[in-house]
Write a structure and sequence with these properties.
single chain, about 300 residues, alpha/beta, Rossmann fold, 2 domains, 8-stranded mixed sheet, 7 helices, about 25% helix, globular, binds succinic acid
Length: about 300
């Protein structure tokens, strides 16, 4: 039987996976976002029955990512996903804000086809470079009929866009899915699926996003021992539209900070409470005066609130 060819589009965004150092033993003193996406995929095995196309969307250290890159990336994804011959998309990206981009794309695309983000914890020039295997695994996921929606693949593990978090600053296996656990493992190019791929409607479509300078401004503040009201008062004075508080434990907030957040809410600022814990969620209780963030981490709650405030 003739197997029709599937196209996988690889969109390059930069990161350590595209990083270059002066020597193969240097895993720290490199510059992220140096190699082009074509170089990254040049020697990676392509899944049988698939062809690759590559496009450079950005080439930056992902700590410097902004709304303009997110808008451009979501538009390129929407363009490619609409092509019938495209089976899926792989995005090479820095790991530092990978979870934010994954959640953003999930929120504005909610694609049926797989959109697979990957990165690396060692630069491309390292003797221990993990990028090539991560790209090979991501291509296998993008080509698989078992995969759908936005996910992250690193160290042979597939994480969902809603739960994925960078949980280690150095280890190659740097990502986790918290209580939910991973979606699947990739083993020798095959997927071992552990649970259903999350699906759901987009919070807002990629095609209707306003220009980056017209996005509502949402900031994150953290509750901690000794937290005060000054930051929130300054943000309100500066015209912020929303504030996410990274609360302690099950959503508790220092009384001084809470007072300022309640006052901000009274003045029309949208406030959401996310937990600063790496696992678990804020469990709602009767009488909550500051709404929870639907179990999202603070950085993802910020994205959800920006999209909500655009409506
Ligand atoms: C980045 O996020 O762009 C640098 C760090 C990394 O990719 O691991």
């Amino acid at each position: 039987m003739q197997v029709s060819e599937r196209r996988i589009v690889v969109l390059g965004c930069g990161g350590t996976i595209a990083g270059r150092a002066a020597s193969a033993s240097d895993n720290l003193g490199y510059r992220a976002g140096e190699l082009g996406v074509e170089e990254l995929i040049a020697h990676v095995p392509v899944p049988e029955g698939s062809t690759l196309a590559a496009e450079q969307v950005a080439n930056i250290d992902s700590k410097d990512l902004g709304l303009a890159q997110w808008c451009a990336l979501s538009q390129r994804c929407a363009h490619w996903l609409a092509q019938t011959e495209v089976a899926g998309i792989v995005i090479t990206h820095g790991t530092d804000t990978l979870e934010e981009t994954a959640f953003f794309l999930h929120a504005v695309l909610a694609p049926v086809k797989p959109v697979v983000l990957t990165g690396a914890m060692r630069p491309a020039t390292s003797a221990a470079a993990d990028g090539p295997q991560n790209i090979a695994d991501a291509l296998s996921v993008a080509a698989s009929p078992l995969a759908q929606g936005v996910c992250v693949v690193l160290a042979g593990t597939v994480h969902g866009a809603i739960e994925v978090q960078k949980v280690h600053s150095y280890r190659a296996d740097a990502f986790g899915s918290g209580d939910a656990g991973p979606l699947a493992y990739v083993e020798e190019g095959r997927l071992r699926v552990l649970r259903a791929w999350p699906q759901g409607p987009a919070l807002r479509s990629a095609g209707s996003l306003p220009d980056p300078d017209a996005w509502p401004r949402v900031e994150i503040v953290m509750s901690h021992a000794g937290a005060g009201s000054a930051l929130v008062r300054a943000l309100v004075k500066d015209g912020v539209a929303g504030i996410v508080v990274a609360a302690t434990g099950n959503g508790t907030v220092h009384e001084a900070l809470e007072g300022a957040l309640l006052a901000a809410q009274e003045q029309g600022v949208a406030v959401r409470r996310a937990s600063r814990c790496a696992q678990g969620r804020v469990l709602p209780q009767p009488g909550d005066r500051l709404p929870g963030a639907d179990g999202l981490s603070p950085v993802k709650a910020r994205i959800a609130l920006m999209l909500e405030l655009m409506q």
